[in-house]
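Run: sequence + adenosine-5'-diphosphate -> complex structure.
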Amino acid sequence: MFKLLSKIFATPKELHENGVLGMNARNYKFISKCNKRSLYPLVDNKVITKTLAQEHEINTPKLIGIIEYQHEAKNILDIIGDYKEFVIKPAQGSGGRGILVVTEHNKEIFTTASGRKITYNEVYQHISNILSGLYSLGGRYDNVVIEELVHFSSIFNNFSYQGVPDVRIIVYKGFPAMTMMRLATKMSGGRANLHQGAVGVGLDISTGKALNAVLKDKPVTIHPDTNANLMDLAVPLWREHLDIGSKAYDMTGLGYIGADIVLDKDKGPMMLELNARPGLAIQIANGIGLQKVLKNIDKHYPKNLNAKERVDFVLNGGKF
Amino acid sequence: MIKKIKSVRFVLFVCLLISIIVAATSTYYKVKYWGFSFKPKQSTGVWSIEEHISFMPTGEKIKVSITTPEDSDNFKVLDDSIIATGYVVKTEKNGQKKLILTSNPRNSEQNIYYRVMLFDNEDTKGLTKDIKPQAPKIPQLDERQIAIAKEIIELTKEMEGDLPEKLIHIFNQKPAHPLVSSYLPFKISQEEIAAAIRELLAIEKVSSRVVKGVKLEEGKKSLEADLMVEAYIRNKWRVYNIGTGKRGIPGDFVIFQRGDKGLVDIEGGEDSSIQFSVLKSLSSNFDLASHRARIADQQAYFDSSIFSLPLNEQNIIKWLSVFPLAILIIVIIRNVIGLKTMGTFTPMLIAMSLVQTGFVSGMISFSIILIIGMLLRGLLSKLNLLLVPRISAVVIFVIIIMQAMTIIGQKFSLNIGLSAVFFPIIIMAWIIERASITWEEDGAANATREIVFSLITAVMTYLVVSNEYIRHITYAFGEINYVILFLVMLLGTYTGYRLLELTRFAPLVKG
Ligand SMILES: Nc1ncnc2c1ncn2[C@@H]1O[C@H](COP(=O)(O)OP(=O)(O)O)[C@@H](O)[C@H]1O
Ligand SMILES: [Mg+2]
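>> structure
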């Protein structure tokens, strides 16, 4: 009995010794201390995030246009112009809700990423729904973001069941602190959200290579649907990924954020969105306690470095 | 940074200590000087009795005289009031206190309510002295009756106990004793037995009188006044139950009237009926506290406390007083245990509803509303409605479900159906909406888990707030809520692991 308990339960002491970060400590010591509330809109609104990112020369899908009011919805074809492929999403959406990926169209019939064909009217209706708040928290009125399509690199195809893998970087005071890749599964419905059942693969912060992987908070080594060996995963252009994370700090001033980055086969890593309350499952994916890492950054990492220097410092294993 | 946490925590900790000291002092004070108790039972001492008098006027001037109970060994009158619209009310103190109501002729049925509040008179129980009454008048009886009476008295000589006891015993024998049958040849009513026993007592030179009153039993409606015989024996008035012959006033018997006259005399009315209902007041023990505070000369402080408010307001405050504890539980469940629930205080509101509906029927009707609501909501989601109209539609679903359940509940007299209306409509609608969204996005397992966690939280909260003791204590010793306030604030600085994180992060440690 006791043995069984000690198998499923760790003692607080054990967690503490391993530097595991709990929810209460995350909220109290990191989020509320490092993230000023007034800065939240910078990450909660994708229009603002995107505009800022462009100013800071952070690679992000280019903004094609925004729609703020219902009466502008009919201008959609003008806004799209010559673009044959584009993405429509709510500015304040989350969890992938309300995202429409169009890969082809002739102004009347639109083909989505999944191959489904929809009419102009349906696209119009979708925009109208976003504007009236169907996908935003609490049903607030929202804006529509129209941006360029990301052509995902195919190197992760074996590692993901449908869906698009992305890299999540926890950035603490500008230093990339911990990273993981999120891979969609059948269970997650092709979406890369861990709580929906996506696989999280912890990545070595200095190499971008797989360290460890979890599914629903339990360790795994093989992708449940594609059977790919997750430990073979290695993210190319690793430095560029970290650069984005590091710059996101300068851009927002938020001391504790999660940056979501996808890999475009031509343009390289692109920032999709930022999150001011990133989850804690990343520790399980890495098999490393986050508090330990953050404390180390607090204690030993130099201040007053610029974004590039911070990445250098991290890539060098926390030394000059 | 760490220093700051420590100083905030220190300040809160000091506040907590202060609040504990204040609460402890005040508790001591209340127990010592106001006679408060930690047990809710002490609040049973106060009763309110309502006497409902109704009659048809005959068309003449109306005069109603009502005999009111007086302080006795057992009970003290706290307060009384009368509801009699249009009547002139006068008090007459001529021996026993009487209320005289007069009015010009009327023509429709008259209803008069007299209400009196009594409390256990612990201070004087058994201490009052009785004055020796005058010797009773010898009853006017014919010879035959006197002869029978003598024989009955002769019978009692061989029995044990007080004379009235023995007489009552003989009169109550079944089948009737032949002597009794010939003494009281017709159908025997309690009044007649009482009268007969008093005659026999008078022959033996024992003073006696009839006593009318009400037995205190909670929730009793439509009682008729009970009858007893009181006799002056061994220098004391002693009461005997006519039904059983048992001596002594039962602890819960309140005497309304002594002597022969009716409880209520009505002139200018007929077809009168008098009914009593008895209610145990929930929180009136605090009126007692006021009484005691007056005696203890603490009135000034007492007046400022909530216990000097009218009953109704006290009940509201009593209901509110238990909320902080419920909130503390929610905080613990979320931040210390780590259960994820739907909405922060939703489980608390469910718990509050459960208190009103009762646990089982509340849970069943909650589940029915939730399940039917989610099925209907599932149909809605196909329509792709906008949020506000969609949630509004769910609200209307909930209302319709509640109506249907109430009607069905009424038809088949099922409590379950009737309890549906106690759940807050908007909260139910949000639960349904949240659960459906989670169901669609994160799958059935996540949605079910969220609902189950919320219910577990609600049940735990319910177990606390439905407990009589706890409710009594949070109300009577309201200072405890300051302690809770600082506990909640201190929990706001708790940065340790949540219980469930110990298993969630276990793989990190065990390798
Ligand atoms: N520009 C884009 N091109 C292609 N796919 C995209 C694009 N933007 C978003 N997506 C898809 O939608 C998912 C969610 O997008 P994201 O911007 O993170 O929105 P959310 O805040 O709802 O999570 C991404 O993981 C990706 O699969
Ligand atoms: Mg996202």
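>> summary
Residues A 260, 273 surround magnesium ion (ligand 2) (CB under 6 Å). The CA atoms of residues 330 and 345 of chain B lie 7 Å apart.
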